[in-house]
Amino acid sequence: MNKLFSIGNFSRNLSALAKISKQKNLIFNGTNQLRLASTQTSTSSAAPSLNEADKPQWERSDRYKIYYGFDANDEAKDKASAHFYTFICFFGFFFVPGVLLYYYPDYKTNDWCYREAHLELARREKAGLPLVDSDYVPSDKIKLPSEEEIGDMKIIL
Q: Any idea where the domains of the chain sit in the sequence?
């Protein structure tokens, strides 16, 4: 019960601080930090600071700058580095493997029969032979069974 009472006091204090901060130009960020926000302009004779970090965000020259994470001080070098590494990554991960796969030798010998057929056709043309011979195997080398050996066996062609 005591804890609930202290939580209630804390929430009442927070709401009271929120009301005061609206009335007296106080900034309260909710983590026990309270500071006075000045609404008056400074009339000091000191030279104005030229540091970009000291200016409000809407007056900074880098308001719309996109940092790519390569060089925080030089915008041109940062952008050039980002574009260079992006190009290298796309080129290295997509284009180079594609070219290597395209020009890789025929390791499964899929195209061997086509190459061999072209070589055989070129050899036959040089020798003056017909491109396709009807007598591929000479008939004297073929040994067929006689009619007696075949008997009443059914022949399927």
A: 1-38, 53-131
